[in-house]
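User: These chains co-purify. Model them together.
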Amino acid sequence: MLEVRDLKVRYGAVEALKGLSFRVSERSIVSLIGANGAGKTTSLRALTGLVQPSGGEVRFENTSLVGLAPHEIVRLGIAHVPEGRRLFPKMTVFENLKMGAYLRTSKAQMASTLAMIYEHFPILEERGRQLAGSLSGGEQQMLAIARALMSRPKLLLLDEPSMGLSPIMTAEIGKIIRQINALDVSIILVEQNAMLALTLARYGYVLQTGALVLQGDAQELLQDDGVKKAYLGL
Amino acid sequence: MPSNARAATVFVAVVALLIALPFVGGDYYIYLFALVFINVILAASLRPSLTCGQLNIGHSAFMCIGAYTSALLAKNLGVPFEVSLLCGALLAAVVGLAIGYPSLRLRGVYFAMVTVAFVEAIRLIASIWVPLTRGNAGLSVPKPSLLGMSLATRTSQYYLALVLMLIVLVILYKLERSRLGLVWKSIGMAENLAQSLGVDIANHKLLAFTLGCFFAGVAGAFYAHFIRFLFPPEFGFLLATNILVYNFVGGRGHFAGPVVGAVFLSLLSEPFRGSPYETIFFSIVMLLTILFLPGGLITLPGKLAGLRRWRPTSGTYAPPASA
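Assistant: Joint model of the two components:
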């Protein structure tokens, strides 16, 4: 469904991605793991058009994404939950969700998506009129994911969903990621928490300073001595 | 009472008072309030681009374009006021589009610098293009008219200003509460996030900016026929900063902010109008606002209510009203 070949990104003189290749098949969860500065976030930003790659090719369902504007890429069915500031803090929970459906103008479609989302995240319906900035960390993460789902994506890009969350909340987010995947949404999961990423994903890629150093079935990566030592702290 | 119903009640009461004003107040108050209405239009029309996070310190340039266009059309070609007002507003919007398009990629202070340069450029053009504008000798302008009738009395002009202001406010309010308003808000709050949700940021900013220019043109066109004398230095940087100050002193968190700010400051600065003290007055009010009331005047009632609630029952915590 998604094929990335030799993707390169430069920030001025620094080459943040030095030729990354990976693929995501239908209905799968793929994870990119690696330390800070390995190029995980940059690769997501390049997929969604937020930075322009300096080389390489990205194909999504036989459409080339290189050179498309972010809104054109969202329209093709890719939704991005960015890291860091994920919400509009001074908007209500409901307004945040509405922004997620920005490119879906049909009211009926939006209502049905919203009903689906409230079914999975009842807390968001309860807090609908509350300002997003006043939610707890875990609720904010749920809202960010729910908002991405409002655009009815075929492929969801999650950037560090476990960042700053308690272990219990992280487990909860893991459960949610599985549920979303069960709705036939493919997921690229970018994580520093390699344990979480590799237990959820079927296939994993390990990045180091902008390049791919290892790839394989998630179960095998979990057993790999290098991965164990570098990312799992075992 | 829910806050929406309360706001509607306040709005109706204020409009009723304004309709009654000519029956109780003298000519001076009629004149003064018509000027206040112009300032309200200017302040409110700056809000969309401020909401998008653009610091526009050149709004008076578009008022100037509206004023001169309407005045010259009426004076030289005898165009009726309704048409000349519309032409002035449209030209202001077209020029806004032309200026906004290339400067869109500039952010923060760089965008602000373009608007400052532009306001000075327009002022200089109005001063130097003597054959057309009479430059700093000033341009006299015919009275406004409506459907062929000349609006000669101050009272009739006052009602015209009131109606214009209400139309502009209703349009801007409807826009702010629409999907478009939500998108503008999202751009101002987190531009990158809005972009990643598929919002076409450049076009939305341009729309907000151009729309503001259009209504500044409306304000300018009415101003021209009301004051009946145009003098280029009046449309300089100072007026532009005043429009900005109306927004910040009134408060940026709510649609009523710029309206409250424009009314409050226009009335309070009236003794200093046209004198150097006006600038000092605006500076002091702006500083006091930044120091003591960063949310602007519209947050004042909430703060006072908070104080009163806090004293008797110090345990209850009232969540801040959502803006």
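The first helix of chain A runs from residue 40 to 47.
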